[in-house]
Amino acid sequence: MKICYFDDNRLGVVEDGIVKDITVVLERMPAYRSPLPRFDPLVAALPGLLPAMREAAVGTAGKPIEDIKFLSPVANPGKVVAAPVNYLAHLEETIADPKTFSRAHVVRIQESGLFLKATSSIVGVSDGVALRFPGRRSDHEIELAVVIGKHGSNITEADALSHIAGYTLGLDMTLRGPEERSFRKSIDSYTVLGPWLVTADEFGDPSDVGISIAVNGEVRQKARTKDLILTVPALIAFASSFYALHPGDVLLTGTPEGVGPVQAGDVLTASVERVATVDVNIRSA
């Protein structure tokens, strides 16, 4: 199933290029009061809601995806965990270009560990990216994004896939410069997710998924997840060995070689196989 938030925070499912409004299903979710949970309530409730979501979609007319404003498919993630330099060719790229990539980038992921991005940086694909600091370079980074479905700590690789709610397309936009990585990557709109969440049962095995990005029609990044240094299960095990993962947490799995600068007016055509191909507009903040 493909699940999305759209327009004015409506809940939808996507079928054959049509978004069907199933917002009524949200009435079945448990109510929360302060202190609020650290997880995303919809993702946490998803296993029990899926039958009702399928039923609500039957006979609903819906709107074509071309007429929809897609918001982030995860509304309230507790954290965004990102994998730095998780493709070998990208590691070689960072080593060869010290003017662009700081010395911290040339350390293997097993040594550098993962990093966190502010959840306030998340937008949907329809929002696009608002560039700050026009005198500095901001780069595109296309990634497969994994959405955690159930709580876990010290998760084993063997059990990791059972903790996944679904997958989506992710753009980890990056301001280049001397500041800490998380600081430069947490600018508003620098984490793009969407256009929808593909549930794990529909998505299938994440070990060989194609991802790519083109800027104004010029392909810059193209790879498959079989080339990841740390696989999706290994990343989940690695992350959960340091902190608990909760429903709705987003794991950005890393970007391949070919990262490059963007500027206001550019159009990114981003693609994750089995999710979607979407255009994302770049503008000035």
Q: Could you characterize the architecture of this molecule?
A:
With about 280 residues, this protein is an alpha+beta fold. The chain folds into two domains: about 1-65, no CATH class; about 80-285, Fumarylacetoacetase-like, C-terminal domain (Fumarylacetoacetate hydrolase, domain 2, Alpha-Beta Complex). Helix content is about 20%, strand content about 35%. It has seven helices and 19 strands. The chain has helices spanning about 40-55, 90-95, 110, 155-160, 180-185, 200-205, 230-240, and strands spanning about 1-5, 10-15, 20, 65, 80, 115, 120-125, 130, 140, 140-150, 165-170, 175, 190-200, 210-215, 220-225, 250, 260, 265-270, 275-285. A hairpin with a 2-residue loop joins strand 2 (about 10-15) and strand 3 (about 20). The relative contact order is 0.20.
